[in-house]
Amino acid sequence: MRPIHELLSEHPLLAPLTPDEIAILAEVSNIEEAKAGTVLIREGELDRSVYILVEGSAEVIKRNPETGDTYTIVVLEEGASAGEMALLSGAEGRRSATIRTRESSVLIRIDFDAVLQKEEHGALHVKLLSNIARDLSGKLNTTNQITVASMKKELETSKAQIAMGMFTVNILFMLGIYTLSFRLLMSLVIEWGSNWISVGILAIMATAMYVMIRRSGYPLHMFGLTLNNWRKVLTESFVLTLPLLVGITLAKWVVLLLNPQIDDSVFSIVPMLLEGKMDHTMLIYGIAYALFCPIQEFISRSGIQSALMNFLPPSKTRVWAAILLSNLLFAMAHTHLNVTFALLTLFPGLYWGWMYARQKSLLGASFSHILVGVWIFFVIGIDQIWNALF
């Protein structure tokens, strides 16, 4: 350990002092070693010793007089000083906080009482008070900046909680209306067909989601509504979707292999093209499906998943909780069609939810959804397999 007078002369609080003044302080100073949890200064006590942290760390603790609870205000690292506030409070000033080591530490304890009681050190006393006041002014400025940052963070948290509350209320409202009208939906499915009912539900939900997003006060890119890096997003989406298309194709091949009674080929579109059975109706259905895929993704990703990802309390599982919950809610909205179909929409939805969380863009998940949907319904076809198996 270096001599005390060298350590004291290098400390910012004492740097303006002359060598003679440093020597006076060195005479009333000593080096102490403290174990973790050692209380150096206790709140409320009469003591004017100042500590300089040479090695280790300590924490400033404040007690709530009403509840008795204690709170760590700040952590002091190597080179920090503690206890100088008592020099400004006078002889009867009591400690305003407790200082406790957080780990094994080495400190310099300066007994200022031994110096201040001597009249010949009056000039030294004035210079110390001036330095301490300047140091405390700097610390106060830093504290103000930290306070402002903390207030901004609390404001953002409150804003997020309000947005999450409004989101929850609106989702519950829509689910309540959907549940109450379920019997009516079933009747309409029988009378009008499931496709028209699905379009109506999607239109209502998409409109409600868009209104919620606009009223949230957050920027649109926070909900994946952005074209930033669109080339990279689309390229990555295509690459990530290729294994899914191959897996779906292999799955149909295996099903046909195990069920020879199904009269179909792996690529249903090939016989249609060769036999000239492709008509305008199928093309229109394909275009309509491709147009509605982004609407579906908008509801489940931008509307539900984004809100959960941004407004749920921070945790390691928040993203996956948002992905799972958003797809469960969206799958539930398809139960008027078929429970099996609703469950089957859940699994690719998890994949698109992961893609959306990765890219932070609705564009990639929508493009992948279009590729998979067009591939399943219009390239390899699942109508005959679906009818045979379900």
From TrEMBL:
Keywords from the UniProt entry: Activator, Hydrolase, Membrane, Protease, Transmembrane, Transmembrane helix
Matches recorded under Pfam families: cNMP_binding, Rce1-like
Annotated transmembrane regions: 162-181, 193-213, 233-255, 282-299, 319-347, 367-386
Official protein name in the record: CRP-like cAMP-binding protein/membrane protease YdiL (CAAX protease family)
Cellular component GO terms held in the UniProt record: cytosol
Keyword ATP-binding among UniProt keywords: no
Single GO term (MF): DNA-binding transcription factor activity
Keyword Transmembrane: yes
Taxonomy, superkingdom: Bacteria
InterPro entries, per the entry: cNMP-bd_dom (IPR000595), cNMP-bd_dom_sf (IPR018490), Env_Response_Regulators (IPR050397), Rce1/LyrA-like_dom (IPR003675), RmlC-like_jellyroll (IPR014710)
Residue stretches in coiled coil: none
Any one GO BP annotation for this protein: proteolysis
Domain Cyclic nucleotide-binding: 13-111
